[in-house]
Amino acid sequence: MNLIAAVSLLICSVRGFQQNPPIASTRRLILQTSSHPRILTQQTSLFSSTQTNDSKPKNKRRGNKQYNNKKKRKREVGAGKELKNPDEVITWRCYGIDVYPDDLLDPSLNIDKRKEKRDGSNVPSERSYLTPPVISSLLSRLRIKSEEATDGLPSILQDARVVRRSLDARRRKGSDPKYTYVIDIDLTRQAARNLGLAPQSGKMEILDDKKLKGQDDDIANNAEDSQAKPRIVIVGAGPAGLFCALSLASSGLCTPILLERGQPVETRGKSIGALIHRRCVDPESNFSFGEGGAGTWSDGKLTTRIGRNSGSVRYVLETLVKYGAPERILVEGAPHLGTDNLVRLLRNMREDLRELGGEIHFGTKATKYLIEDGKIRGVEAECVEVNERTKSKLIDSEAREHESFKTFYGDAVVLATGHSARDVYEELYKAGVELEPKGFAVGFRIEHPQRLINEIQYGKDWGGRVFTKRPSTDTVNTEHFEKLSEGTEESHQGTLPVASYRLATDKAFDGEQNRGAYSFCMCPGGQIVPSSTEEGELCINGMSFSNRDSLWANSALVVTVSQDDPILDKYRSHGCLAGLEFQRDIERKAYELGGMNMTVPVQRLTDYVNGVVSSSIPASSYRLGAISAPLHEIYPKPLYNALSYAITEHFEKQMPGFLFEDALLHGVETRTSSPLRLVRNRTTLQAGGVDNLYPAGEGAGFAGGIVSAAVDGLVVANAIKAKFLTGDGDGNGNAFKSSKSIGFDY
Predict the structure, then answer these.
(1) How many helices (H) and strands (E) does the chain have?
(2) Residue 111 CA neighbour count, 13 Å, CB half
(3) Is residue 257 a contact partner of residue 359, using CB atoms and an 8 Å limit?
(4) CA quadruple 57, 62, 66, 69: dihedral sign
(5) Is the separation of the CB atoms in 79 and 193 below 8 Å?
């Protein structure tokens, strides 16, 4: 023990030297006093390390980690080095700024948008979300002491903006829900050094100075140099078609001619009313076809997998705000528009597109694609009467020259139809356009009482703090939680939005193999609607208005089907259209189970997993009526097995209480994504084997939702502008910088 103590003392003495310690002489002294081989090895190793880094602690692993982090931090911020541009302002993005709902209680913190409009002092959402509790949490992260300053910011920060806010309702060890913010801050390089800021991926990042653009500025600026404007025919007025047309028109380079088989949004509402009240399906104007596409009468979700912070996504969101969307979509982590907001927004986009020189033809269904010598020349279309209302007057088809059939010639054709336009696939298949099958998913719509989802997600202590501004709905929710918490005092005063959920597993066992199973397009405070496009078929979808204030929550529950799945073998005679025929077959079965009058077949979730027909059913939001039916028999056995296994072995464990007696399955949800993809050249974005034909959006198999479809429309527009501006036959001139597709696959 004396020997070890002596060695320790000598080591401490060596570490005490400031510069050039006489290590060699000390080592000789130790070697003379120690002959134990293990002690000798340890002592030599210690001195070797000390020789390269004499101030680094060696006895505590945690101490080493702290030292390394500190040293790395100093190196990254350039401590000790002279800054070249100390006054240059840079932007840092701070992630994970947490604030609890109870801290956001102060009524003075809530910005009244209506009052702002009256006063003319409109505050952007990125500013209105920057309340004192949020600033306090930000300063805590930056280790800045609170001080009085303009707008509540300390003088060291030149500006701050909320980029995104999301609700984290995960109850880890009983913790409360919290809002998590992403905030951009502007400060000088010298200030960043003084604060000791260092880039850390996912925590603190320096933003580059690239502009967030949705189209190529060089192309737009050079548009005036072009003499004859090419005419671009765009088939489909969904997100991909609309954003493609707006981009082409605003560049001044091309004249977009937008063809939509359905009606303008105001007339489309009448067609949907006829379906709900008289059970009449208009095959050309319904929940799937018409201005805005299927997303118009849906939840209007703006979530996407391609990155909320990317420039193209930001451009899409800012464009929606420009045309009337609420500014909160720029900040909220899970933004949605709601059908009521989409109706107004689409009319504004339509009028602006025409003012920019674009054409829009509603009630115009493309029936034939004119392809000659491997190049598309235009499309033939059937036309029906249209009643369209602008801001100032009603335009009816009698005021225009009405033709039953018309040919639209163009220098290029953009195919931006949705995945419900099955006749388009069939026509392209006949015309020899290259198509390929891809994976998709099918299943049902599940509906729970919204108050139950609030309870599962937020707990008994927070679920009662959900308010929708609809008195009847809020009363039901409040009374439910008052019964659960009877005898206890309410401990929270903060408010929460209606709860949502997301479930997924890749281990849904079907008896032979694992499949993927997941929830899709969850609509809190929503309703279930028919999305059929043909008589004799029944498929459904979910939708919500902007307030999400109904008594129910619904979501698709689906199982994956691969392109080479054995369950598609009986449909192989249809070639690459096998998945399409499978979907149709299931929809016909659902129509028959419902009584062949658009009534939806339903089954309690508990009965579905047990394989028995429900003897009674709870209330449903589906307005055309519901009838108990054996939904467990509608899909092939492997799909039933996989979904049942996912519900009992995964979803119920991920979300205890999900397998609820009053949870009601509605049949069927078959159109989550396209079962086909048009082959598209990765560089030119043109269809395989056909020049100047540009597939775009969800129906073409290159997107999965409103935002990604809009982005794909912009990408295609850039490809077209590049080709016709530069004369580059491959469409990949210097002006075009976004040649990659979104590449969605399900």
Answers:
(1) 21, 25
(2) 19
(3) yes
(4) positive
(5) yes
Assess contact for 531 and 552: CB atoms under 8 A: no
Q: What does the alpha-carbon distance between residue 582 and residue 410 come to, in Å, rounded to a whole number?
A: 35
- For residue 390, what pLDDT band results from cuts at 50, 70 and 90? low
Task: Please answer whether residues 386 and 363 qualify as being in contact, where contact means their C-beta atoms are separated by less than 8 angstroms.
Answer: yes
| Ranges 46-55, 211-220, 313-322, 504-513, most confident | 504-513
CA distance 457 to 145: 35
pLDDT digits (tens, 9 = 90+) for 653-664: 999 999 999 999
> How many CB atoms sit inside 10 A of residue 686's CB?
24
What DSSP state is assigned to residue 741?
-
CA distance linking residue 191 with residue 185, whole number of Å:
11
The tokens of 453 are what? 């989802």
Task: Say whether 298 sits in a helix, a strand or coil.
Answer: coil
Place of tokens 């799945």: 565
pLDDT band at 64 (very low <50, low <70, confident <90, very high): low
* Amino acid of residue 647: I
Compare 146 and 521 and report the one with higher pLDDT: 521
DSSP 347: H
Give me the amino acid identity at 448.
H
Q: Is 557 helix (H, G, I), strand (E, B) or coil?
A: strand
Structure tokens at 562: 């691969």
pLDDT over 60 (residue 118): no
Distance of CA 449 to the CA centre of its chain: 25
| Spatial distance between the Cα atoms of 430 and 449, rounded to a whole number of angstroms | 47
Nearest to 741 by CA among 678, 690, 689, 665: 678
Q: Which residues have CB under 8 Å from 611's CB, separation 6+? A: 632
Contact 721, 254 (CB under 8 A): yes
Whether the Cβ atoms of residue 589 and residue 634 lie closer than 8 Å to each other:
yes
Closest to 310 in 3D by CA, of 214, 180, 182: 214
* Distance in angstroms (rounded) separating the CA atoms of residues 391 and 397: 17
**698, amino acid identity:** E
List the structure tokens of 117.
């409009």
The three-state (H, E, C) secondary structure of 603-671, written as one string? EEHHHHHHCCCCCCCCCCCCCCCEEECCHHHCCCHHHHHHHHHHHHHHHHHHCCCCCCCCCEEEEEECC
Q: Letter for the amino acid at 160? A: A
Residue-wise pLDDT tens digits, 479-503: 999 998 876 766 788 899 999 999 9
Q: For 589, what's the count of Cα atoms within 13 Å in the CB-facing half-sphere? A: 19
